[in-house]
């Protein structure tokens, strides 16, 4: 292996796609796939074992997907590994979350191979890559993603159902599950189930994280009758 070879881990739950991506990547003399993974848990294990230079992560893998892999890999001790997430345009919310969790690049699954290669080399050079362009830092990358998504409805952008989209603002102003159930005339366990789905789709782990995400990404239009002065309820 050449000294300047970029060592890559490919993670996707479709074996044929993984193998195809491996052959595509290795068509370039300076790129080499050193490990493969079929889900988020395996990606985390392989990344720690092989310490590749770059991770190519499918956004929607089983067992947590790229977001869980990024959270586990980049929340620990500092690492020289860099990462690119492979996703679709309608996964804009998840791609923004991926950048917030440490990803350096976002490449569409439908991209031409030249864009993938440019994205890899841009990220390895220390910049960020979004869809088809390089940007200087993560803040600009997130701004571009949000600007590109202005014409996409919130429900489509974050894959939230109308009911889930209705619940989010109540959480942002601190309403409890019981309060939300009464306001929406549904059972409290129904609210809990919707909330669990929202957490999974937005890649957040608590009501506070959800509230901050909603505020930062324009999901919040405070509902009538909800007290804006409330603190975020723990349940």
Describe this structure in words.
This protein is α/β, with parallel strands linked by helices and 235 residues long. The protein has two domains: 6-148, Rossmann fold, CATH 3.40.50.2300; 154-216, Winged helix-like DNA-binding domain superfamily/Winged helix DNA-binding domain (Arc Repressor Mutant, subunit A). It is 48% helix and 14% strand. It has eleven helices and seven strands. The chain has helices spanning 15-25, 40-50, 65-74, 92-100, 113-124, 138-148, 154-158, 162-172, 177-184, 188-202, 207-216; strands spanning 6-11, 31-37, 54-58, 82-87, 105-108, 128-130, 133-135. A seven-stranded mixed β-sheet has the order 2-1-3-4-5-6-7, with helices on both faces. Helix 8 packs across helix 11 (207-216). The radius of gyration is 19 Å and the shape is elongated. The N and C termini lie far apart (53 Å). Residues 221-232 have low confidence and may be disordered.
Write out key terms for the chains shown.
alpha/beta; 48% helix; Rossmann fold; Arc Repressor Mutant, subunit A; 11 helices; 235 residues
Beta-sheet strand percentage? 5-15%
Name the average pLDDT: 85
Fraction of helical residues? 40-55%
Write the CATH architecture name of the largest domain: 3-Layer(aba) Sandwich
Element order: H for helix, E for strand:
EHEHEHEHEHEEHHHHHH
Oligomer: single chain
Largest sheet: 7 strands, mixed
Q: How many DSSP H or I helices?
A: 11
- Regions with little confidence, pLDDT below 50 for 5+ residues: 221-232
Q: Which structural class do the helices and strands define?
A: alpha/beta
């Amino acid at each position: 292996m050449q000294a300047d070879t970029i060592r890559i881990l490919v993670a996707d739950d479709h074996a044929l796609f993984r193998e195809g991506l491996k052959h595509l990547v290795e068509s370039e003399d300076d790129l080499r796939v050193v490990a493969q993974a079929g889900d988020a848990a395996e990606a985390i294990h392989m990344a720690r074992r092989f310490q590749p230079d770059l991770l190519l992560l499918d956004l929607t893998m089983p067992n947590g997907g790229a977001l869980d892999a990024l959270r586990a890999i980049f929340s620990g001790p500092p690492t020289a590994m860099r990462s690119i997430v492979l996703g679709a345009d309608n996964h804009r919310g998840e791609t923004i979350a991926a950048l917030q969790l440490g990803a350096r690049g976002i490449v569409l699954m439908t991209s031409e191979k030249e864009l993938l290669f440019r994205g890899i080399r841009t990220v390895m050079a220390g910049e960020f890559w979004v869809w088809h362009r390089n940007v200087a830092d993560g803040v600009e990358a997130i701004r571009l993603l949000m600007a590109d998504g202005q014409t996409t409805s919130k429900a489509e952008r974050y894959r939230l159902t109308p009911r889930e989209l209705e619940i989010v603002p109540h959480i942002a102003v601190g309403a409890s599950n019981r309060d939300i159930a009464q306001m929406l005339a549904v059972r409290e366990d129904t609210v809990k189930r919707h909330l669990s789905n929202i957490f999974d789709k937005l890649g957040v782990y608590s009501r506070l994280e959800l509230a901050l995400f909603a505020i930062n990404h324009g999901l919040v239009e405070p509902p009538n009758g909800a007290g804006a002065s409330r603190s975020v309820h723990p349940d």
